[in-house]
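Hi both,

Apologies for the delay on this - the queue was longer than expected. I finally got the 5,10-Methenyltetrahydrofolate-bound model through. Below you'll find the protein sequence and the ligand SMILES exactly as submitted, and right after that the structure tokens for the full complex including the ligand.
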Amino acid sequence: MIEIKDQSLETFFDELASKAPTPGGGGAAAVMGAQSAALTSMVCNLTIGKPKYAEVEADMQALLEKSEALRARLTGMIKADADVFNRLMATYGLPKDTDEQKAARSAAIQEALKEATEVPLACAEACREAIDLSRIAADKGNLGVISDAGVAAMAGYGALKSAALNVYINAGSLKDRDFAEAKLAELEALLQGAEAAAEEIYQIVKVKL
Ligand SMILES: Nc1nc(=O)c2c([nH]1)NC[C@@H]1CN(c3ccc(C(=O)N[C@@H](CCC(=O)O)C(=O)O)cc3)C=[N+]21
């Protein structure tokens, strides 16, 4: 089977729209985040090597390295999310005829829910980084493509909030409340200041247009 990341966009959207459990909102968040990182890379690639931007050359090189590593991380999360969510769906299908089976099924669901919480949380962390990287592109990038730095910020913010919703929905079903609360606290730290950062980057870009 072709990995999601290697499918055409049309196939991906068809499957996203379908009743199939994956790809779902978790994978869509990772795609949005990867787009953010890719757009930051694009601004770097269109700034590096231009005499007019020689002053920011080293900064753009360093940024490109980070945004490309981040893009790879987020691209990997598209499949990672499908994998954990498929595993979660499979646990709901486990037999529940006997008390023993019920206990085993519940334990398997809870274990899968933890993973289905951790993957979008890792995605949220990467998305927060994507927003922060887009700011450097907005500050220093080629003015001819500066709007793309703003799109990177908006995609990163949409991705972050989307990943957060996937954390919330799964954490809400966790019986291990200590685990859930710890993950939710990590998420809140990532969300802290993100909206203001995204809006600031939007304004940084807008005044340059
Ligand atoms: N890390 C993570 N990633 C997600 O993508 C994610 C998530 N967590 N948490 C919950 C939401 C919700 N979501 C669903 C998508 C499709 C069905 C779906 O198609 N259900 C079919 C069942 C299909 C089947 O059993 O094969 C149905 O109910 O009829 C259900 C749920 C994904 N989410």
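Main takeaway for now: The chain has a mean pLDDT of 97.

I'll put the files on the shared drive as well.

H.
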